[in-house]
Amino acid sequence: MYEDKGAYEVMIILNCSSISKSYGINRIIQDVSFNIQDGDKVGLVGVNGAGKTTLFKIMTGEISPDTGEVHKSKELKIGYLTQNTIMDSEKCIWDEMLQAFQPLIEMEGRIKALEHEMAHTTGVQLEGLVRTHADLCEEFKEQNGYGYISHIRAVLVGLGFEDEQFSLPIKNLSGGQKTRVALGKLLLQKPRLLLLDEPTNHLDIQAVEWLETFMSNYKGSIIVISHDRYFLDSVTNRTIEIENKKAYIYDGNYSGFIKKKAIQREQQLNKYTLQQKEISRIQGIIKQQKQWNREKNIKTAESKQKMIDRMEKVDKVEELPSAIHFNFQSGVSSGKDILFAEELSKSYGENHLFKDIHFQIRKGDRIFLLGGNGTGKTTLFKILLNQVSTDSGTLRWGKNVEIGYYDQEQTDMNSNNTLVDEVWDANPKLTQTEIRNALAAFLFRGDDVFKKISSLSGGEKGRVALVKLMLSQPNFLLLDEPTNHLDINSCEVLEKALAEYDGTLFVISHDRYFINKIASRVFELNPTGINEYIGNYDAYNEKRKESIIEAQTPESISDSKQDYQDQKLQKASERKIKKIIGRIEVEITECEISINDYEQQLCTPEISCDYEKAMEITNYINTLKEKLEKLYDEWEEILINQCE
Questions:
Q1: What is the pLDDT of residue 146?
Q2: DSSP state of 641
Q3: Strands 2-4 and 238-243
Q4: Pairwise CA distance, residues 546 & 372, whole Å
Q5: How far apart are CA 150 and CA 97, in angstroms?
Q6: N-to-C CA span, the chain
Q7: What's the whole-model pTM score?
Q8: CA distance 499 to 517
């Protein structure tokens, strides 16, 4: 199946044609049609409940559409990562990753078995074994048989796993870690079409940036559901929006889609308005002609009506899906100084999170706290809330500081409460009407307010938490990943509310688009302190890159014989390390060329008939392969140390 693109043809690997799906009387999607081309990187967007995940399940065949068809190219391999993937395996992380290369591992076993058989075979039978061995080695090389180990390591490190974690049993991992393992295995399998449902949910910023690079270089096609707009901008070249049950296709990434959608809506609205004015004008003429009621007038009226009937009607612009609407206001004004933190430290046994933390927060600050998973960001917030004690250090609070806290896990909610009771318990002075009006602003209307908290999705719980936060009117907001379960429309409403907020913000987030919109300062938390940057995420990222470049210059190295661990902390970028890497890479290349040359020699008639020479060359090849494996191990170890 091909789609005409003018001077060249593009392979269509998947086609959805007139797909509709309902559950009972609830229509989810209707008459959805689109193509996915080879190499497409598509962002699938829409409000929560729009039908994005349903569409994924239809594409994989997990559920069937009520009407319409999904056409796939021959032997299309689809890899699907669900939003809440929980991997159930008795294996350790490394062994689970190896499963992605099982055919290569089996091929490697056959090669070794052939080599063993060749060593004990003479005569005519050896000739056939040598040829089979050479063919199998060539296929093994073409399928990256000598590089899959390093590929596994690169993916695991990229997704935030440390070398010592590779042997951890999967059954003992957290839910987020299991999702990262599942994502890593899927990436290693390299399906022709990847379907990823919120792949960045359990990744820190460094891992998301690695994934962006991986996906940008991915040779297959990708469809990704994500509320991470920065991620979508970096990765996608097409956007499909599910809105009002229908699909709308746009060329370009998320930001391009937003601009094009706004222009198209405005153009359609203008066309519709102009046409309606023209119809009204003609209808006025018809009415007037009918009032005169002469034969000539009747004919004129009929003629004008035919003009209206012949018009190609412009569709009325559909209403946008309902969106939450709210604002944050502080009830009491705080003093100019919010908080001084001095020499804070925290450890859990041998797990040292951070030490010597110093920072100050002033009224009106918009501060975002960044750092890798496990660096102690949420723990620091809980210290500020007096829920966790420090090992050392002091906190000095300013006057009239009233804290409002958004907990990404919503652990403070009573699962047995209804929505209205949950909000009312936190705000007992308000009337039920005031509570219900507040809930309605967050799209909880009618009988929805009597749902149990336990029955809500993550996104719905997030909205309830925002209702409580809005009504409490704090002047200092501590927000822990507030955009995690919100759809893009809700994220944009939250951004607007926070931008207009008259209080002070301290926010944990890995949503770079969100950080860019709101931040005035960025704190980067690490085990030995906090690095402070002025500006938003882009400014922070630019400064961080400059620091890395400065650390790589010879002037930054005070002692060429310094400890190797210090070299790692300085990004392992000394010239000595670069020379070692260069030497190893040259040796690897020479070794692979020699192996290839010897394997080609084995295939020549003069060698294949000379059994002694064939065995001599085979021994050379085995020796070179052992050397190559050691070179790869050395090369991988240096690269992994650099990543750390």
A1: 81
A2: H
A3: unpaired
A4: 20
A5: 12
A6: 46
A7: 0.73
A8: 8
